[in-house]
Amino acid sequence: MRLPRRPADAAQYRDRWLALGLLLVVLGLAYAVLIHPWWTVPMREAGDRIVSLQERELRLRTQLRQAPQVAERLQQVRALQDQRPGFLPEDNPELAIASLIQRLETVVAEASPGNRSCAIVNRSPLEPDNREAYARVVVQVRLRCGTPETARVLYLLESGAPRLFVDNLNLLTQRSYLGRGESADSGGLDVSFDLYGYLTPSGQPSPTEVPRAR
Description:
Blueprint: H1 7-83, H2 93-111, E1 118-125, E2 136-145, H3 147-159, E3 165-173, E4 189-198
Antiparallel strand pairs: 1-2, 2-4, 3-4
Helix pairs in contact: 2-3
């Protein structure tokens, strides 16, 4: 038969649990005040930095592995740019406009030899536009062409070198304008548009002076 605890034993038992509780509280406070801010937090931050550095190292390794392909592609792009310069080679707007008109005449003659099915009606240079980052020279053009010749002219103008652009394109049917060999169904077109290109920015060499990428 189990004997009941004496009052002295019960007090000692309670004091032990109270001391144990106080010890746990002290240990918790010590961890919160000493260990957590001075050890746990710095270790977590160090772990985060290590992970970040590992990810950065992985990115750098990947970029280094891709460097030869990137360099090769860059050389290809530079070679294409050298073959097809983006800026007009002329040094001033007057020469650039003369070049635009000459290019237009050459393209029309190529699309319709002897101007049998395509002819230049008007070409009027406009004042250079200096409001943009790059100075733009513009020529207003009006043509009378057959439909195939019109498509050919526009393609040759925008696909050659240096880069030229066509804007404000208007097409009107002129059935009375027929070239040799055209049927009445094909008709002809009264074509008007702005032909423009960009001058080389001041302080930079013209496209003909840019050395070839090595």
